[in-house]
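Dear colleague,

As promised, here are the two records you asked about, laid out in our usual form so they can be pasted straight into your sheet.

NAME FIELD: protein one
SEQUENCE, THEN STRUCTURE:
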Amino acid sequence: MVEACRYSDRPLAFLARYVRKRPGAHAAILMAVVAAVACSVGAQYGVKVLVDTLAGGLYVGTHARDAWLGFLLLATLIAADNMLWRVASWIASYTFVAVTGDLRRDLFRHLTGHAPSYFADRMPGTLTSRITATSNAVFTLQNMSVWNVLPPSMATLIAIALVVTVSAPMAAALVLVQSKGVYCNLVQQEVARLAKQAA
């Protein structure tokens, strides 16, 4: 009972406790997603190599071999991207559900450790629905982080890293533009939230 109370003011530490219970699975999901995003960004580079090779003319020197190598690079990156997303999904399909189950179990144990007088003012159905809502929120948070937040963030970082290899000033300009876009998006969300509160 005391264990759950330690995290009452620290929700991220509470969530991290459950992530640490399955470090291997969470690390595998993270690595698979980052590698899939790298393959996705790399596939764009593979298309560039293939187009550049084809634009040079196929039948001059070794260009036909280079075109096939560019095609092979592109096909390999696309296949690896697809496979890594499936691996991440497969691992997440049982890891995130297990984290949700652990969370529910621990919260129910915490609840059942209270004296019967605790339930005089608090309806058990309400407490149960709060536990369900909390565990569903954690499940949604993990899914949103892995599938909706991490991929575009990593794709942006990897793309900027590729641009740095070409031109550092151009990469700096892209970082500024991206930062402005993120800032504008956050401002827009805050304005929408305030408008919703005012309504």
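NAME FIELD: protein two
SEQUENCE, THEN STRUCTURE:
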Amino acid sequence: MSDTFTPSPGQLSRWTRLLSDNPARVVRALSLKPTESRTPSDGDTHEDKYACLSVLNKLTESQNTSSTWDAFIEQGGAEALCMQVSELASYSSLVPEGRLSHETVKNDVSPLGPW
């Protein structure tokens, strides 16, 4: 993964499929707390969380996605997204302007310390 939260094409493909087939897993990945390195049940990481956010962003730009979106929301997706906004807001206040990147969060401001 690059240092700017850019998931690989393989990650995007995998999480696009999971969003349709298993929206609860997407919610679990998004719910990964900063103090956790992996989800207990699936082993998903923070990099997976960024891929999920990218897939959801693409979903909001698409037509005819209501059933996928509805299933995601029914599994707790709105709450998981709100948690992400809160986490990003707290990280962004700790990072110098223009330096919010995967490497900065991972090495400089993560409560886990360097990963």
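A couple of things worth noting about protein two: Residues 92 and 99 are 9 Å apart (CA to CA). The chain has one domain: 9-109.

Best,
R.
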